[in-house]
From TrEMBL:
InterPro entries: LCCL_sf, Rxt3. This is Rxt3-domain-containing protein. The lineage of its organism: Eukaryota, Fungi, Dikarya, Ascomycota, Pezizomycotina. It comes from the Eukaryota. It comes from Lepraria neglecta.
Length: 209
């Protein structure tokens, strides 16, 4: 069971991506799953295989923490100073909706009230996925029998989804928001392939069960 929470979370995996090498995949992680408690569970679970390039069944948020984009959490019993992490990078007010195309000097704490957009580059299968301790997480190894694809995090963006939706106030926009809300109750993160192309269904999977 999750620390301080009354339910069990499960890792989120991206869709099957065969035939989509060098396409980009954008995954939206709602702010709820960026909380201190959720990030603690992500770090404990370690559902990530590889280093920098990960198997397609690695949890994207775990990969973002392992590769240094996002700050993890390890609970009150862990002395962060012993983990050799750089001081957490501050996110300036003017940068809250900007896209970062390179990992920051030190992992970033999620800004309050913001969702996270991860842009993943789909890559071919590797012969081996090497484990490594990075930013407080030890990734897992995978041998030469992986039957899926790989991905690498290309960029991230902190986005105020609520504010963006508030800009659309006509009837069509309200219907779209209603469809999004009702759909997200069962389907979870929003996923897009490439530029202007959406994966069939528009949303896949759930982050928590």
């Amino acid at each position: 069971m999750d620390s301080k929470l009354s339910y069990t979370t499960a890792p989120y995996t991206i869709p099957r991506c065969e035939g989509k090498e060098n396409c980009t995949l954008t995954v939206r992680i709602p702010k709820f799953y960026l909380s201190k408690e959720e990030r603690e569970q992500v770090c404990l679970r370690r559902a990530v295989w590889g280093t920098d390039i990960y198997t397609d069944d690695s949890d994207p948020l775990t990969a973002a923490i392992h590769s240094g984009w996002v700050r993890g959490d390890w609970g009150d019993l862990v002395d962060i100073s012993m983990m050799e992490l750089n001081p957490t990078a501050d996110l300036k007010e003017s940068e809250q909706q900007s896209t970062l195309s390179a990992s920051p000097a030190s992992p970033m704490l999620p800004p309050p009230g913001m969702d996270l957009h991860l842009t993943l580059l789909i890559l071919p299968t590797l012969q081996n996925y090497t484990p490594r301790v990075m930013h407080g997480i030890k990734s897992r190894a995978w041998g030469g029998d992986h039957d899926g694809m790989s991905y690498r995090i290309e960029k991230i963006a902190w986005v105020d989804e609520k504010s963006a939706r508030g800009e659309e106030r006509d009837g069509e926009a309200r219907r779209k928001r209603l469809k999004m809300i009702t759909g997200s109750r069962t389907t979870g993160p929003v996923v897009h392939f490439g530029i202007g192309k959406s994966l069939s269904g528009g949303k896949v999977g759930i982050v928590a069960a």
